[in-house]
Amino acid sequence: MLFAVVVNICVAVIAGTMYVVLRKLKEVHVTIINGHYAFVIAFVSTLLWFIFRYNPQDPIQYQFDSYQYYLMLIVAVNTTVGNMTPILALKFDKASRIASVNFLLVLISYLGDVFIFGYSTHFLEIIGAAIIIGCSAVTMILKYTSKSQ
Fold first, then answer.
1. Do 63 and 123 lie in a common domain?
2. Which of 84, 130, 142, 143 could, after both became Cys, cross-link 97 (CB 3.0–4.6 A)?
3. Could you list the residue ranges that cross the membrane (predicted)?
């Protein structure tokens, strides 16, 4: 559990840094940035796959059926589009405003678990989702009504 928290903190730092760097690349076309981004992701993912695939202590057991390949294809397409949208949005707005919308990822993931996978909901989870929606809405309103550019 602690490892998951550390990894999520690393993701937040890396994503925040990515937004700042991407903001400096306003004059570069979005497809060029997304192409480099996809290449690096493919390279790092392949490298990690080789490391973990041939790890003698914990070999990976593959048991993929056609449904698993279908889900991986959906993840790949959604990730590509998901990577391109903040890059495109950064051409038009500030990085902090774009990053403020990321809190909605938690809500959207939760709703996906509920509606797609049929997970049961609890009262405190619904309250948590409402708090995330409220905080995200307030943050977006404050950021979009601020005078600084």
1. no
2. 143
3. 6-22, 34-52, 67-89, 101-120, 126-145
Tokens (6 digits) for 16: 């925040």
Q: Report the distance separating Cα 10 and Cα 17, nearest Å.
A: 11
Task: Tell me which residue range forms the domain holding 83.
Answer: 1-89
Q: What is the pTM of this model?
A: 0.51
User: Looking at residue 147, what is its pLDDT?
Assistant: 63
Question: Residue 110: which H helix or E strand, with range?
Answer: helix 104-115
Query: Which of 89, 122, 141 is the C-terminal boundary of a domain?
Result: 89
73 with 109, same domain? Answer: no
**Pairs from 145-149 (Cβ < 8 Å, separation ≥ 24):** 149/94
Domain boundary (89, 114, 135) is at 89
pLDDT in tens, 16-31: 777 777 777 777 777 7
